[in-house]
Each structure stands twice: as structure tokens, then as C-alpha cells.
Amino acid sequence: MANKDPERKAATRRRIMDACWDVYAADPANAVTVSAIVKAAGVHRSTFYEYFSDAPSVLSAIEDELAEAFGAEAKRAFATGGANPAGIVQRVYVRHGDRLSVLLGKSGDPGFACRLKDAIRPVAVSGLGLGDKAFAPYLFEFAASGILAAATLWYERGRDLTPAEFGEGIRTLLSSIASSRLT
Prior knowledge:
8 helices; 74% helix
């Protein structure tokens, strides 16, 4: 791997991750194997092990990438003053909804929602002014869990609302939470 140029290494890593995703998304209830990944990616087993230690490490890298996208979108939104939790989720779902809906869906990874919430918690708690209020962790958990569940349902229903309609619905629901901030 040391002799490969960075672009080629990145492309090979991406190909392995995409192949892993294809195998996982086809049947999320079954364990993904290294054999299935290397076959789908068209790489040798030794090439796989240059990048990942096992199949779960590839899935973890995919989840990390999605959590980072969520966190980056939250940071960007709060930094530019355009922070609106529904809009953050909406923008990330428009780009990554296929993967998010599988990982957050009925056969997905139960811990993935926690990873997403952890990625946005520091920025959201600060940006929403929840600070050190005693009930702040509960408000965040309630709002974040509800938004993720609603976004997953939206995607499972084939995005039956436009992104703007979905965002407005979530904003309406969140406004009741924001107006009842408990101390």
C-alpha cells in the first residue's frame, strides 16, 4: 500500500466501502463477510486487509463517514446562523438518505442513531442555547430521536413530501419543543 499514490489508495478504499454497502444494503439482517465484500469490489483479499481489518470495520467506516457528514452540516449551519435542526437533517438526508434510511431502519444498526446524535450534540446543545439547563439532555434526545425517526419514515415512504414540506413539518413540531424549554 505504501507504493500506491494517494488518489489510487482513496479510490480502492472507496470501492471496498461501496461494495460493502451494496452487500449490506441487499440484506441488512445478515452479516456481511469479507469474502462477499472482496467479490463485490473485485479486489484480492490481501488488498482488502491493507485497508480494513474485517467486515465490521468497513461498516464502521461507512457509519463514521455519515456521522461526520451530519456533524459537519450541523457545524456549518450553526456557524452561518442558518441553524435549523430540521434543515440540517433534511440536507443530509437528501444527500445520504439511501444509506441513512437503511442504517436507521428496522434491520439497521441500533447503535447508529446514537453515533449520529453524538456527532451533532455539542454543536446543537450550544447552538440551540440549551447550555447547562437541567432538562437539556432530555430535550436534545427527544428532538434528535424524533427528527431521525421522522426522516427515516420520510425516506421509507419514498420522500412523499418535498424536502421543503418535510422541513416545514419538522420545524412546526420543534417549535413546540423550543417554546416549552424546561429549566
